[in-house]
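ARCHIVE CARD
Drawer: 12
Card no.: 0347
Subject: one protein chain, sequence and derived structure
Cross-reference: see card 0346
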Amino acid sequence: MHPRKIQTHGARITREKARYEMSSWFQEEGYPAKRPWYPFTSNVYQEIIPSFAQGYPYKGQILLLHKGTPAFASPAGDRTISMLRDQTKVPLFIACDVAIAETSMYADYLLPDLTYLERWGTPHPTPDVITAVSKVRQPAGAPLTDEVEVDGERMPLCLETFIIAVSKRIGLPGFGQDAFVGHGNFNRMEDWFLKAIANIAVGDKPGDTVPDADENEFAIFKQARRHLPASVFDEAKWKNAVKPELWPKVVYVLNRGGRFDDFDTAYDGDYMAHKFGKMFSFFMDDVASQKNSLSGEYFTGYASYRGQFDAAGKPLDRAGQYPFALITYKEPYGGQSRTIGNYWSNVALQPENKVVLNKRDADRLGLKRGDRVRIVSATNPEGTWKLGDGQTADMVGEVGICQGIRPGVIGVSWHYGHWAYGANDVEVDGMTIKGDARRRKGLCTNAASAVDPILKDVSLTDPIGGSASFLDTMVQLEPVA
């Protein structure tokens, strides 16, 4: 989009989509690599902070976190807490969050962000939607964050505003006047998002464009946004963000919250209309020709079950004093980790999660419903989160008994056991904001998760797909008086 755009080069710090053997590190060091490389995947979320802290394959100076809480949400995420607190490993940590949460609480600078009802976005639909869909998230209410001014533009404080302000200050190309060559300026977040929505309105091929909004639709558009402050909704500025001929089409999409194909386009006769367009391979040549960057041994090119392995492909011994397999799940009224704030569902229906086990195991251990137990593992024999400054959070919960879970397995639902995110007292500008004890109820078991014995700072991770292991930890239950 810009003639002076910055070109990226080299491997990502997580070494995704990069082959170790093609790197200068391999030429200098050979096998084993210091950490795994992941040539076939992306978004190896749990590896970002450990790689940054270890400075491999290169050192970082500034870590920026947005829309995430890896210390709380990743298996063995507790290992990242000490990294984030060590300025020799993470010199500057900036977070942008809607709350002082379990990871952002360790940031040097914490920027307030907008909630999903206050912000722009183009989220993807889930794979179970079988029609063509492009969703549009747009401001529905006045933001709770402060307004700031950047080059005369009043905007709510959030990540996008921060990026625009910093980019202008340091002179990055692609921001400010004539940032979109031939298509306008980039001074506000709407300048970006409305162009993305114009792309949705135009469609993927000729003749696929949506209709223009008519006068009635324009009236609805304005009326629906009359409550928004000028820093969020300024019709003239929104209109100026796209080409004049596209503005009526953008309004058409915004009024509908996106673009949605008719339901009758889902099927072509008895078959799905939107078919998987590529060959489905049972044997992957490119995987079979790639080696594990630690062991130097070839991967198998086909799906197989081999049990649990470390980063170098050596099998793990699961026998010993930890007889229970730990699994997690999500209650239907819960969802993601942050829904504990939904008091009228989570807290009212179930104030805290349970340590669920089969009745046969409960009888053998002499446990009954309502007893309290601590979850311990080989990598966390104390059964606690170490939060820094002497603070801890216990992995202790009430026993729940049912026949619907397999003997030898315990299950603990997600989205409980916060120690931040409104659960603790916080001092801001000399004022103490009291925490809500209801948010601390229950437990989060990620600190018990198995840690890779070679890397020692990250969960077990699939070497090909890059997935973090949520289901391969063996634990024991200890009664708590």
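Annotation on reverse: Residues 311-480 form a domain with the Barwin-like endoglucanases fold (CATH 2.40.40.20). The radius of gyration is 25 Å.
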